[in-house]
Amino acid sequence: MSARKIIIDTDPGQDDAVAILLALASPEELELLGITCVAGNVPLPLTSKNARIVCEAAGKTDVPVYAGSKAPLARPLITAEHVHGQTGLDGPELWEPQMPLAGGHGVDFIIDTLRSHAPGSVTLCALGPLTNIAAAFNTAPDIIDRVQEIVMMGGAYFEVGNITPAAEFNIYVDPEAAEIVFRSGATITMMPLDVTHKVLATKPRVEAIRALDSRVGHFTAEMLDFFERFDVEKYGSEGGPLHDPCVIAWLLQPALFSGRHVNVEIETSSALTLGMTVADWWGVTDRKPNALFIGDADADGFFKLLTERLARL
Question: What is the pLDDT of residues 119-162, one digit of tens each?
C-alpha cells in the first residue's frame, strides 16, 4: 500500500511536537505533504517557529511549513503558556530555525492541496484549534467532499474540560471553527481528553525515550520533563498526557484505540459551557452521528509504537 497523504495542522506545543516527530518517523505509512500552523498554545509567530524547530530536530527539513491563522474566527486569542511555557516548547534548549517558512498562507495550502489531489486521498490531522480548517471550508466549500478524513485532538465528554469546567482547550479557543467542522459532513475521528488522559508519559516511559540516546530522544524527553509538571500538579497523575500524538498513532495503529460513532455538537453561546463538545454517547437524541469519538487506548502499546518510531530518527 502507498503511504497515506496527510497535512498536519498544529500549534506546537510539546505534545504537538511529539506528534509531528511520530509522523516524520513513519514515512512508509504517512506522506506528510505539509504542516500548517495556527495560533493556539502560543501565538502564531511561535507556533510557526516551533514547527520548524521540530522538523530540524528530526533532520526532516524538506517538509513545507506554512503560517496560517493568527486569531480565531470570531474571538480574541486565548493561549496556554501556563502549560507549555513562554516558547511553547519549554524544556530543551531551543534555537533559531534555519528552515524558512513556506510562501503563502496555510489556509490556501490546505485548499490548493485538496484541490490538486484525488478526492478522498488527503487526511487532515488537526492538533490545535480548528481555525485553519474551518477557514478553508468557508472559503472553498468544494474541498469538504475531497477530504479523506479529519483526525483531530480536541474536546471531551466524560472528562469534561481542561481550560474551563466544561471545555477542552482546542475547542474552547475557537468554538465557531469547531462548529463549522463538525457540521461540515466530513468524516471525523476525534481524540478527546477521555482517551488522551489515559496515555500518560510516566517516568519509565520518558526514560525509555531518553535512553535512545539520540538528538530526538533527548529533545523529546526534555520536552516531556517540562510538560508533565502542569498535569501532574493539576490531576495528581503519574505523568503528562500525550494528547496530540494520539492522532498520528491512530493512523498508524488504529487497533490501539476504541470508540463509538456519536453525534457531537459544539456549544458556542453559553457563558457556562462555551466550547463544550456535547457528545450523544447514549443515543438519546435523533441527531445523526457525525464523529468517531475515541474513548479508550492501549497506553503500553502506544508508547511502544512511539519509542520504536522515535528510534528511527
Answer: 999 999 999 999 999 999 999 999 999 999 999 999 999 999 99
Residues of the chain with pLDDT under 50: none
Three-state SS for the chain is: CCCEEEEEEECCCHHHHHHHHHHHCCCCCEEEEEEEECCCCCCHHHHHHHHHHHHHHCCCCCCCEEECCCCCCCCCCCCCHHHHCCCCCCCCCCCCCCCCCCCCEHHHHHHHHHHHCCCCCEEEEECCCCHHHHHHHHHCHHHHHHEEEEEEECCCCCCCCCCCCCCCHHHHHCHHHHHHHHCCCCCEEEECHHHHCCCEEEHHHHHHHHCCCCHHHHHHHHHHHHHHHHHHHHHCCCEEECCCHHHHHHHHCHHHEEEEEECEEECCCCCCCCCCEEECCCCCCCCCCCEEEEEEECHHHHHHHHHHHHCCC
pLDDT at 231: 63
Would you name the residues annotated as active-site residues?
243
> Could you tell me the three cell numbers for 122?
488527503
How far apart are the C-alpha atoms of 288 and 268, rounded to whole Å?
Answer: 19
* pLDDT for position 88: 97
